[in-house]
Design goal:
Keywords: Cobalamin biosynthesis, Methyltransferase, Porphyrin biosynthesis, S-adenosyl-L-methionine, Transferase. This is uroporphyrinogen-III C-methyltransferase. GO terms for molecular function: uroporphyrin-III C-methyltransferase activity. Belongs to the precorrin methyltransferase family. Pathway: Porphyrin-containing compound metabolism; siroheme biosynthesis; precorrin-2 from uroporphyrinogen III: step 1/1; Cofactor biosynthesis; adenosylcobalamin biosynthesis; precorrin-2 from uroporphyrinogen III: step 1/1. It is built from eight helices and twelve strands. A five-stranded parallel sheet has the order 3-2-6-1-7, sandwiched between helices. A five-stranded mixed sheet has the order 8-9-12-10-11, with helices on both faces. Strands 4-5 form a two-stranded antiparallel ribbon. The chain has two domains: about 110 residues, Cobalt-precorrin-4 Transmethylase, domain 1 (3-Layer(aba) Sandwich); about 120 residues, Methyltransferase, Cobalt-precorrin-4 Transmethylase, Domain 2 (2-Layer Sandwich), CATH 3.30.950.10. The two termini are about 25 Å apart. The chain is an alpha/beta fold.
Length: about 280
């Protein structure tokens, strides 16, 4: 795919720089023009789980591709080692593109990577991506805000650094808002129970979108009292995103995206839980 040449744009990737680039939630057509231009000029692509193969195909044939993706309880490279890898590549004067599913700064650990690089004197550019909450919910036909349903939206992660689910439950259980939970499917029963225990009605609409924005997208909708069992019965797996709030009740009325069978030329991104699980990625 040729990258359009806009009348005004910044230079391509520079030697010794690291570019933290959001690859979006799965559909390669949601990738940004800036991201595509950087990938097309990179010496090295350090990429996560869930980065669509057509995005990687934008890189030069001679570019080095290094997979550092994370799945639940299965990290191909620990985060500290990823940080050091980026630093070493930049010090070797490489044009480094760090591709992350979703958006680098929304549950994508982009801030952690950038901190180390900036402290070491490395130039860094951040290219936002379509985060899972925005992209996946839109492809499911679930608006995150709606004047009659939700005046605010909250993003939360179901997987904390210590592996615990210790969130601000009173804040998440407030009325008239939408809650989007990344990386929460393995703890879904606990999450639903905590939201009910802190004030949300058990009948609150809730849904899980599996592999959102891809041809394998699947949507399971229920309420807080029954969602965890429905997801279990349906065999839903990561990457999946959880949405809670009355806006979920607009599904399937606003559903527009029709997933299709997997095209032979466009394989799915790596299976697993990364930036979007909705990670991080996001």
């Amino acid at each position: 795919m040729a990258v359009p040449d806009l009348a005004v744009h910044r230079p391509g990737p520079l030697p010794g720089w690291v570019y933290l680039v959001g690859a979006g939630p799965g559909d390669p057509e949601l990738f940004t023009l800036r991201g595509a231009r950087l990938v097309a000029g990179a010496d090295v692509i350090v990429y996560d789980n869930l980065v669509a193969p057509p995005i990687l195909d934008l890189a030069p044939v001679e570019a080095e591709r290094i997979y550092v993706g994370k799945k639940a309880a299965d990290h191909s490279l620990p985060q500290d080692e990823i940080n050091q890898l980026l630093l070493e590549l930049a010090r070797r004067n490489k044009r480094v593109v760090r591709l992350k599913g979703g958006d680098p700064f929304i549950f994508g650990r982009g801030g952690e990577e950038m901190e180390l690089l900036v402290e070491a004197g490395i130039h860094v550019e951040v290219v936002p991506g379509v985060t899972a909450a925005a992209g996946v919910s839109a492809y499911a036909g679930i608006p995150l805000t709606h004047r009659e349903h939700a005046q605010s939206v909250v993003f939360a992660t179901g997987f904390l650094k210590e592996g615990k689910v210790d969130l601000d439950w009173p804040m998440l259980a407030r009325p008239h808002q939408t809650v989007v939970i990344y990386m929460g499917i393995s703890r879904l029963a606990d999450i639903c129970a905590q939201l009910v225990a802190h004030g949300l009605p058990p009948t609150t609409p809730a849904g899980v979108i599996e592999r959102g924005t891809t041809h394998a997208q699947r949507v399971v909708v229920a309420d807080l009292a029954t969602l965890a069992q429905r997801v279990l019965d349906e065999g839903v797996r990561p990457p999946s995103l959880t949405v809670v709030g009355s806006v979920v009740g607009l599904y399937p009325r606003l559903a527009w995206f029709e997933p299709q069978e997997q095209p032979k030329a466009s394989p799915l991104p790596h299976a697993g839980c990364a930036v979007v699980h909705g990670k991080g990625g996001e």
